[in-house]
Amino acid sequence: MNVISIWNDYLLPSLVLPQRQYTIPLEMYMFFGQFTKQWHLAMAGLTLSVFPVIIFYFFAQKYIIKGVTEGAVK
């Protein structure tokens, strides 16, 4: 579950990374300007930014479900 929160982190990469070296979720923020929104680029980018989390979930699905079920039983 921490993978999703670390993947979607905005504050730390925006403070630490040098200019124009952004993470994928941080780069998605650039599609939404003050006066304009590029929805066609934003939706394509957001779809691509979700893929690593989905791929990670498929590889770790057995362990995630095992951990959730063990935590539910006292």
Automatic annotation (TrEMBL):
The keyword Membrane applies. The chain crosses the membrane at residues 39-60. It is found in: Cell membrane. InterPro entries: MetI-like_sf. One of its GO terms (cellular component) is plasma membrane. It is a multi-pass membrane protein. It comes from the Bacteria. Keywords: Cell membrane, Membrane, Transmembrane, Transmembrane helix, Transport. The keyword Repeat does not apply. This is ABC transmembrane type-1 domain-containing protein. It comes from Liquorilactobacillus vini DSM 20605.
